[in-house]
Design goal:
By secondary structure, the protein is mostly helical. It has 3 domains: 5-171 and 246-256 and 365-395, 3-Layer(aba) Sandwich (Rossmann fold); 177-238, no CATH class; 278-363, Tyrosyl-Transfer RNA Synthetase (Orthogonal Bundle), CATH 1.10.240. 58% of the residues lie in helices and 5% in strands. α12 runs antiparallel to α13 (227-237). The model has no long low-confidence stretch (mean pLDDT 92). The structure holds tryptophan (TRP) and iron/sulfur cluster. Iron/sulfur cluster is lined by residues 292-293, 296, 303, 305, 308, 310-311, 326, 330, 335, 337, 340-341. Residues 7-11, 42, 45, 135, 138-139, 147, 149 line the site of tryptophan.
């Protein structure tokens, strides 16, 4: 019923590293030529944990978007925007908040976990608890049905589907409702069925409220209908039904989790990453210093690639022949670790070179990133306002026009 649309966002954390690129960005770039895509800077999300320092969030926004463009996101193929300039996100978030039970938010698996991980911050706030709800609004306000997220975010999409379903249930109508209702009418006796249909028609076409009452009476008194059947036919009396907010699905596409230089997950906060802006000499230095299988203390000790973070880089950058070379050379001590790392160093440098050239071009044009975001926000406001009109209508909020 709604067309395919992709939506995804990232919190502004400043310069992007290879973990962001291989874990998400590369996939965003691949999607932009296939489906209509909206990508946004989730600056309000960043505030849920960084509310004390919004200036850092603002600065990081421009650095991050320059990196997105340098990596290959093309504003002519997708819409790139800033969340805090599209107030419809906030409006939908507020309205969905009215129907979201607290327990749903408290039960999101990452809620307690993150609070504990970031124990240096006071995260006993309303905003932090509501973050999966805001994320739901982000998605649904575009009626996006495809959301590329990491596995850690799949539970957030589940709550998004539940909230969308609840909204449709309360204010709208489920998909396939019409067919369900027509089948339910058949459960009435032929005569009562016809009478129900003509009552519905009289009400819908002429606003004949006596006929509406008659329809309701037929349903209420029908012994052949279950409680659910009765609810269906009561609802059907007053009009055609439609899904107002589609339920979003995770788009699980192949992405690679890059291990950081120290063997932990690549993350800015661990300082173990390689930035997209990393100068070639620094790429070389960092990878040469990267940890390897601890069992290979000496060149003559055999190792196991499965215990080595460099191997995760080969999985991203090397073809089968080279991977075989690594596996054999490592397990027989036939190659040294520096020898093993060299092709990865070359591949990373080759990957980053054109990105860095583009980033330099972008940053040489003053105001370019802002222009891209401004145009993206205008488009985003247009699309989201269309959804909001339907949402306000479905809820029956007062209109002044
Ligand atoms: N939660 C994501 C993050 O922490 C960002 C995000 C916000 C997002 N809203 C979203 C991702 C909607 C996908 C869809 O990076
Ligand atoms: Fe890691 Fe390669 Fe050294 Fe084996 S040879 S431990 S895979 S760097």
């Amino acid at each position: 019923m709604f067309k395919d649309r992709v939506l995804s966002g990232m919190r502004p954390t400043g310069y992007m590293h290879l973990g962001h690129y291989h874990g998400a960005l590369k996939n965003w770039i691949a999607l932009q030529s296939q489906i209509e895509c909206f990508y946004f800077v989730a600056d309000w999300h960043a505030l849920t944990t960084n509310y004390e320092d919004p200036r850092v969030v603002a600065k990081s926004t421009f650095e991050m978007v320059a990196d997105w463009l340098g990596a290959g996101l093309d504003p002519n193929q997708c819409t790139i925007f800033l969340q805090s300039q599209v107030p419809q996100h906030a409006e939908l978030s507020l309205l969905l908040g009215m129907i979201t039970p607290l327990g749903w938010l408290e039960r999101v698996p990452t809620y307690k976990e993150q609070q504990e991980n970031l124990s240096e911050k006071d995260l006993t706030t309303y905003g932090f608890l509501g973050y999966p709800l805001m994320q739901t609004a982000d998605i649904i306000v575009y009626r996006a049905n495809k959301v590329p997220v990491g596995e850690d975010q799949v539970s957030h999409l589940e709550i998004s589907r539940e909230i969308a379903r609840r909204f449709n249930h309360i204010y709208g109508r489920e998909a396939g409702f019409e067919d369900k209702a027509l089948a339910t009418i058949k459960k009435l006796s032929g005569k009562l069925g016809k009478e129900y249909e003509s009552a519905k028609l009289a009400w819908n076409q002429n606003g004949d409220s006596a006929q509406l009452e008659r329809g309701k009476q037929i349903v209420a008194e029908a012994g052949s209908l279950s409680a659910i059947d009765k609810e269906t036919l009561f609802g059907f009396l007053t009009g055609a039904r439609k899904t107002i907010l589609p339920e979003p699905q995770a788009l699980l596409t192949p992405t690679s989790k890059l291990i950081g230089l120290d063997g932990r997950k690549m993350s800015k906060s661990y300082g173990n990453g390689i930035d997209l802006r990393e100068p070639p000499a620094s790429v070389e230095k960092k990878i040469r210093a990267m940890k390897t299988d601890p069992k290979r203390a000496r060149r003559t000790d055999p190792g196991n690639p499965d215990d080595c973070p460099v191997w995760t880089l080969h999985q991203v950058y090397s073809d089968d022949a080279r991977k075989l070379w690594v596996r054999e050379g490592c397990t027989t001590a036939g190659i040294g670790c520096l020898e093993c790392k060299q092709p990865v160093i070359d591949a990373v440098k080759a990957e980053l070179e054109p990105m860095q050239a583009r980033i330099a071009e972008i940053e040489a044009k003053p105001g370019y990133v802002k222009d891209v975001l401004r145009a993206g926000c205008a488009r985003a406001r247009e699309v989201t306002e269309a959804t909001m009109r339907d949402v306000r209508d479905a809820m029956g909020l007062a209109k002044l026009d």
